[in-house]
Write a structure and sequence with these properties.
Blueprint (H helix, E strand, L loop, with lengths): L10 H12 L5 H7 L5 H5 L2 E2 L7 E2 L16 H35 L11 H10 L9 H17 L6 H6 L2 H9 L7 H11 L8 H31 L5 E5 L9 E6 L3 H11 L2 H9 L5 E6 H11 L3 E3 L4 H6 L5 E4 L8 H7 L3 E4 L10 E2 L7 H15 L13 E5 L19 H9 L4 E5 L11 H12 L2 E5 L1 H9 L6 H6 L2 H10 L4 E3 L6 H14 L11 E5 L5 H12 L3 E4 L9 H15 L2 E3 L4 H18 L12 H6 L1
Parallel strand pairs: 4-5, 4-7, 5-6, 7-8, 8-9, 11-12, 11-14, 12-13, 14-15, 15-16
Antiparallel strand pairs: 1-2, 3-10
Helix pairs in contact: 4-6, 4-9, 4-10, 4-23, 5-6, 5-10, 9-10, 10-22, 10-23, 11-13, 11-16, 18-19, 18-25
Bound molecules: FE(4)-NI(1)-S(4) cluster (XCC) and iron/sulfur cluster.
The site of FE(4)-NI(1)-S(4) cluster has 14 residues, from helix 13, helix 19 and helix 23.
Length: 644
């Protein structure tokens, strides 16, 4: 709510913002300022607009009105709006997952042009894991059976989303079952959230929030997990790969295509088309020296992980990329796409092109990306970019860019050690048990104009690694930290504590691991399960010395992720705070009481360094409960947090 905080810590962003300001082009940063002061009722979560007798608002100081027209109080109102956000976030990830499953189905039957099963081994393993027979079957047959089996997860009416019980530790599953928390079907719980939060249905805030947790599990252990696993089958399982990040990856003399959004189906094909000799020849005929395909938001992470494609930026970079004047085509699919791109593009030569029927924008070109003609369409899109290259006017590309390593997965992160064929989490568990490492933190999520861009990610992660916490990252958070060089092996010597340094050197990993896009948070869940399976760190996920954070969270997807992490037993710092402060009861439930039920809880601390200390205090408590050795090289955070 402080409006004069610095807008970003990224010099490339500041350079482009200044240009935008000088040319009188609005950006999210300037529009944020225009929105001040924001409505306090909305910020506190006590504005209800569920029915048309409203909007109603509750006095957050306990004076009248304490109830809406129907009698709903602050707790009911805050809880039901929050779980609607969970449902929307879970819907976004899961609908993306559904599209990937659909792509697998059409690939299995040879109807998806240009797609193939890049990782048949992974296909077989996943089919087996889900109880499907693979012996004597062709790849196509297995893929079809798996796709149909996965599709059932969405519309199932009774039973359980399969990955939960297949992958999570027994004790965690038992607790979920006792609480009736395992989703029956992904879509079913989302629909039930909408029903329960309709006017005059569920008024019990705890009951509402618990259903929010159930809905979110259908994201983390359902839709998002399917998106990741099936993505790996279709496009190949990532391997560690070097690339570059920030606006400086755009090239003055090349055709620049920015793919922005989330689903790998479009971006994978566009990367392939950009390497087509015919199109490279066309580009050179137009005077361009090659074609750059770079990404923004999670699409960036998808093609970074699997193709080594450069990352143009994170969420708040989308308008700034256009402001370089060097983007010939901004290609978008779904999620995190600002409608403002259209106004920006109009000031430059950039063409904005939408490709999904689900996400159109007035003023954008639209070419639907259909799987049946995927490769032809991708070529057409690349051709549009090439044809637009000669129309460039003034170009200013900030020089800033940095190197990074991405592409870590559950399977490849710890295979390095001893050259073992099987991935083993033994080295990680041993390092934690011996006190060389404190634990693991997942720092994930978006950028938001409510906080200085990238600042919370960078400061939190530096604090964590300096105190011997291994950090895994996804999404725009990973992009933020890669911009300052935290995602390369060299970062260990510079910023990591001694214990973490030793691990990084032995295993040959950076202190901060890039685990991919936001749906790839499911990789983190699986990694935690592996840690339990490996032994020595307890028997349920909530026993682990781990924590999560989304310190620059912005969207409903981030809320859904926060919810499934807490439901899985994690301590989660989420900032800016969810809109619940207007209800003491809801705030207390999420930040305290729920720990007794699920083993995890939220913390809404806004200062990233203080939040890191709280996360480490949580890890230290878990370490103490597991009777692990004291930290070898770094101090305990328990006392400090207790005082705070
Ligand atoms: Fe969107 Fe996934 Fe958030 Fe970035 S991190 S702003 S969701 S792109 Ni998921
Ligand atoms: Fe007001 Fe109740 Fe309607 Fe919400 S549901 S707008 S509190 S009358």
């Amino acid at each position: 709510m402080k409006d004069k905080q610095p807008r970003s810590v990224d010099p490339a962003a500041l350079e482009m913002m200044q240009k935008a300001d000088e040319c009188d082009i609005g950006t999210a940063f300037s529009r944020h300022e225009q929105q001040q002061p924001r409505c306090g009722f909305g910020e506190l979560g006590v504005c209800c607009r569920i029915c048309d007798m409203g909007p109603c608002r509750i006095n957050p100081f306990g004076e009248e009105p304490t109830r809406g027209v129907c009698g709903a109080n602050a707790a009911t109102i805050a809880a039901r709006h929050l779980i609607r956000q969970v449902a929307a976030g879970a819907a976004a990830h899961s609908d993306h997952g559904r599209d990937i499953v659909h792509t697998l189905l059409l690939t299995a039957t040879d109807e998806a042009q240009g797609f193939s099963i890049k990782n048949p081994e992974r296909l077989k393993a996943l089919a087996r894991e889900r109880g499907l027979s693979v012996d004597g079957k062709t790849t196509g047959e297995i893929a079809k059976a798996l796709a149909l089996n996965a599709m059932e997860e969405f519309g199932r009416q009774e039973g359980e989303v399969q990955f939960a019980a297949l992958r999570a530790p027994k004790a965690t599953v038992e607790n979920w079952r006792k609480l009736k928390l395992i989703p029956r079907g992904i879509d079913r719980e989302i629909v039930e959230t909408l029903h329960r939060t309709h006017e005059g249905v569920d008024a019990d805030y705890k009951n509402l929030l618990m259903h929010g947790f159930r809905t979110s599990l259908g994201d983390g252990w359902g839709g998002a997990m399917l998106a990741t696993d099936i993505g790996d089958i279709l496009f190949g399982t990532p391997m560690p790969v070097r690339s570059q990040v920030n606006l400086g990856v755009l090239k003055k003399d090349a055709v620049n295509i920015v793919v922005h959004g989330h689903e790998p189906t479009l971006s994978e094909m566009v990367v392939a088309a950009s390497r087509d000799p015919e199109l490279l020849a066309l580009a050179s005929k137009k005077g361009a020296n090659g074609i750059v395909v770079g990404g923004i938001c999670c699409t960036a992470n998808e093609i970074l992980m699997r193709q080594g494609a450069p990352v143009v930026g994170n969420f708040l970079h989308q308008e700034l990329a256009v402001a370089t004047g060097a983007v010939d085509l901004m290609l978008v699919d779904v999620q995190c796409i600002m409608p403002a791109l259209i106004e920006h593009a109009a000031r430059f030569h950039t063409k904005v092109l939408t490709t999904s029927e689900k996400a159109r924008m007035p003023g954008a070109m639209h070419i639907e990306f259909k799987l049946e003609q995927a490769y032809d369409t991708a070529k057409e899109l690349v051709r549009i970019a090439i044809d637009n290259f000669p129309n460039r006017k003034h170009v200013d590309i900030p020089e800033h860019k940095n190197d990074l390593v991405a592409g870590f997965t559950v399977a490849n992160t710890f295979t390095h050690l001893g050259g073992s064929y099987r991935s083993s989490f033994r080295p990680l568990n041993d390092a934690i048990i011996s006190g060389r490492l404190r634990g693991v933190a997942a720092v994930i999520g978006c950028n938001t104009v409510k906080k200085t861009q990238d600042d919370s990610h960078v400061r939190m992660v530096r604090e964590l690694i300096a105190n011997d916490v291994l950090v895994v990252m996804t999404g725009c958070a990973a992009t933020a930290c890669s911009k300052v060089g935290l995602l390369q092996p060299e970062a260990a010597a510079k910023w990591a504590g001694k214990g973490l340094q030793e691990i990084c050197e032995t295993v040959g990993i950076p202190p901060v691991l890039h685990f991919g896009s936001c749906v790839d948070n499911s990789r983190i869940l699986v990694a935690l399960c592996e840690m339990i399976n490996e032994g020595g760190l307890g028997d349920k996920l909530s026993d682990l010395p781990i924590a999560g954070a989304a310190p620059e969270a912005m969207c409903e997807k981030a809320i859904a992720i926060g919810f499934y992490c807490v439901a899985s037993g994690a301590y989660v710092n989420y900032s800016p705070a969810m809109r619940v402060y207007g209800s003491r009861e809801v705030t207390d439930f999420l930040t305290s009481e729920v720990e007794q039920i699920l083993g995890g809880k939220f913390c809404f601390e806004g200062d990233p360094v203080k939040a890191a200390h709280l996360m480490m205090a949580h890890m230290d408590k878990k370490r103490a409960a597991l009777k692990l050795r004291p930290m070898m090289y770094s101090r305990s955070f328990i006392e400090k947090a207790e005082l705070a």
